[in-house]
Amino acid sequence: MARDCFDIKDKIVIVTGGLGRLGRGYVLALIARGANVAVFDICCNPEVVQARFGDQAHQSNVCFLEVDITDKAAILDALSLVEARWGTPDALVNNAGLDAPPDASTAENGAFENYPEMAWDAVFDVNIKGPFLCCQVVGASMARAGRGSIINISSIYGIVSPDQRIYDYRRESGPPFYKPVAYSASKSAILNLTRYVATYWGHQNVRANTITFGGVFDNQDNAFLEAYCSRTPLSRMARVGEYDGVIVFLISDASSYMTGANLVVDGGWTAW
Question: Which domain holds residue 108?
Answer without folding.
Answer: 12-161+180-218+241-266
